[in-house]
Amino acid sequence: MPRALVNAVADALRTAGVRPGARVVVAVSGGVDSMVLLHALARSRLRLALRIAHIHHGLRGRSADRDAALVVAAADRYGLPVSVTRLAAETRPRGTSVQVWAREARYATLEAIRKRARAAWVLTAHTQNDQAETVLLNLLRGTGVRGLAGIPAVRDRVLRPLLGVLRAAIDAYAVRHRVAFRDDPSNRSVAYRRNRIRHQLLPRLAREYNPRIVETLAGLATHAREDDDALTSAAEARARDAMLVRGGAVGVRRDVLRAAPRGVARRLLVLAFGRAAGPRHGLTRRHLDALLHTAENGGAVPLPGGVRVWATTTHLWFGPAALPGRTRGSDRDAAPFGVARAASVRLGQWTRWDGGRCLVRVRRVTGAEVRMDRGDPFREVMSPGLLTEPLTLRPWRPGDRFRPLGLPGAKKLQDFFVDAKVPRDERRRIPLLVAGGRIAWVVGHRIADEFRWHGEPVACLAEVKFPEAAHGLPAGSHPAVGR
Predict the structure, then answer these.
(1) Which fold has domain 231-320?
(2) Rounded distance, CA 238 to CA 68, Å?
(3) Same CATH fold, 231-320 and 2-125+160-209?
(4) Mean residue pLDDT across the chain
């Protein structure tokens, strides 16, 4: 069994393409898993250039100090370089859980160490038991195929060579080779859900239902990852034609989402969200269900990572939810958008809208010049009648009414916002283009039916943009004024 563990580690490294003599950073906490991994790597025939990295989270006082001392002593015994980095717990962002902060800070630190050492990989000591616990944890939270895929063996430059090894084999190896390690008391606390799964749920499932439950769940993760990879590849192939990037917003064609198999459509949404939010945030099954509903029926959805999604006639747009210039904290502390004053609009000139912190321009074009993406929520071709009316921008007021394009009668603007699922605190941020006292365009949402363009030789083009230099946002997108 002990030699089998060394062979399993070597096989995992070779499968991932780690070459003999490669530089790697080994994340060593001082626990049994990472200390066994270090011992097995030192015995490996790959002759890797190892560097040990220990992350001191600054959370467990002297106990954590003793963990660091053990790792440093092991590095000295193996004759390996070691980096000990102490994290500052006070840097944890407000509202972020300790576990989430520690994980993100740990991986960021390991990546920084890898780059400084010019290493090819970071190796961590996640085991098959960790994989089973993650699958169960995701299942209990509510997940899809991607959550069932659990922990990837390889992600970016992180490699987990023990992911196919049971913890029992690791414990046996530690006993056989007298590997010194430290036991983190917090790993025994059932205050954490993962620990309850580890110490209560999994043992009961093994005892009463399936003695090989860990291997079964790990096998499920492998199959789920293969299926997810196939569906993601299908989504990426469709994304070339279905996805549009305009400024800081990412759009996905609604007709493609409706026509695609649901599994592929979900992955298209995940791809779009990833482009808008970056890799630090993910979507739950509930988020994806809400997005699919929005693609079918319209509306808007808030998402993690400061992203909001809103539907136009042809696209589902993903863009930044935080308004430029808005302060952090509750809505009570936000900039007072509702006090914006009306602004006169001069034809052909950009007019600043202080409430939405955007620029709006209305100009004359000929019918032959009208070239626009009909899915762009920030450009509208309208009746040339606007060119002869006094134009202003102003915020919504109680009692405002207009006739939305395509509807038979007038509607209260408040009811329009409710139907469009525009959050209450965003409504006063949306500028209204008013022509001769009548609402012509709820900017980024809908024009009034009476100001539609009927194909005349001359037309009015109304457009909005968001100045990057002034506000630090890319031009061309802003969910507060998105349809």
Answers:
(1) 3.30.465
(2) 49
(3) no
(4) 84
* Mean pLDDT on 26-51: 92
Cα separation of 354 and 341, whole Å? 8
The fold of 2-125+160-209 is Rossmann fold (3.40.50)
How does DSSP assign 138-199, residue by residue? HHHH---HHHHT-S-SEETTEE-TTTTS-HHHHHHHHHHTT------GGGG-TTSHHHHIII
Tell me what pLDDT residue 387 has: 87
Q: From CA 295, how far away is CA 289, in angstroms rounded?
A: 10
Contact between 305 and 279 under an 8 Å Cβ cutoff? The reply is no
* Closest alpha carbon to 318 in 282, 272, 278, 285: 272
Find, among 229, 219, 165, 120, the residue nearest to 10 by Cα. Answer: 165
- pLDDT by residue (tens digit) across 473-483? 333 344 445 44
Tally the C-alpha atoms within 13 A of residue 195's C-alpha that lie toward its C-beta. Answer: 10
Residues 298/311, Cβ–Cβ less than 8 Å: yes
For residue 436, what pLDDT band results from cuts at 50, 70 and 90?
A: confident
Domain-by-domain residue ranges, the chain?
Answer: 2-125+160-209, 231-320, 338-481
Q: Is residue 55 within 8 Å of 93, Cβ to Cβ?
A: no
Rounded Cα gap, residues 169 and 172, in angstroms: 5
**What is d(CA 11, CA 171) in angstroms, rounded to the nearest whole number?**
20
Separation between Cα atoms, residue 453 and residue 379, nearest integer Å: 13
Answer yes or no: are the C-beta atoms of 17 and 42 closer than 8 Å.
no
Least trusted range by pLDDT, from 195-199, 338-342, 347-351, 404-408: 338-342
- Determine the average pLDDT of the residues in 50-68: 88
Two structure tokens written together for 128: 């098959």
Q: Two tokens at 475? A: 């031009």
pTM above 0.85, yes or no: no
Contact 57, 106 (CB under 8 A): yes
| For residue 28, pLDDT beyond 90 | yes
- Residue 169's CB is within 10 A of a number of other CB atoms, namely 19
| Cβ contact 383:460 at 8 Å | yes
Give the containing element (helix H, strand E) for 83.
strand 82-86
Helix, strand or coil for residue 257?
A: helix
Beta bridge partners of 453: none
Q: How far apart are CA 118 and CA 112, in angstroms?
A: 10
Token code pair at residue 173:
């190896």
**How far is Cα of residue 192 from the mean position of the Cα atoms in its chain?**
24
Q: What tokens does 1 get?
A: 């069994």
Report d(CA 312, CA 294) in Å as an integer: 10
Strand partners, 446: 442
